[in-house]
């Protein structure tokens, strides 16, 4: 590639493009991440409700939180994949 590592990339981008070069593509990245999180958090909330109902003990369980987080992560990837493909 064009770079010998992260530091080399940093130095060459700053030299050739200025500090703004480090932020090239930031708008599509923000749009993708924002959409991803906008899907993930409500999905995790509703999966927790579905699994736990009003059971506070279950809601505090790392296992149930992990399962809800995994489900939310999978859903957010499936929903935002087209946007990620376009961004990349």
Verbal overview:
By secondary structure, the protein is an all-alpha fold. Helices cover 78% and strands 0% of the residues. Helix 2 runs antiparallel to helix 4. The model has no long low-confidence stretch (mean pLDDT 94).
As residue ranges, the low-confidence spans are none
How much strand content do the residues show?
under 5%
| Overall pLDDT confidence | 94
**Main sheet specs:** none
The radius of gyration over CA amounts to 19 Å
Helix percentage = over 70%
Any idea what the shape is?
elongated
Given the structure, what is the number of helices? Answer: 4
Secondary-structure element sequence? HHHH
Summing up helix and strand content along with how strands pair, one would put the structural category as: mainly alpha
Distance between the termini: 18 Å
According to DSSP, the number of beta strands is 0
Q: Which tags fit this structure?
A:
88 residues; 4 helices; mainly alpha
SSE layout and pairings?
Elements: H1 6-17, H2 26-52, H3 56-59, H4 62-87
Helix pairs in contact: 2-4
């Amino acid at each position: 590639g064009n770079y010998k590592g992260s530091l080399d990339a940093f130095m060459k981008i700053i030299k050739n493009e200025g500090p703004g070069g480090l932020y090239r593509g930031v708008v599509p990245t923000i749009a993708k991440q924002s959409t991803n999180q906008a899907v993930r958090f409500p999905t995790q909330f509703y999966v927790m409700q579905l699994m736990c109902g009003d059971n506070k003990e279950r809601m505090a369980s790392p296992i149930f939180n992990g399962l809800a987080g995994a489900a939310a992560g999978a859903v957010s990837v499936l929903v935002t994949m087209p946007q990620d493909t376009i961004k990349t």
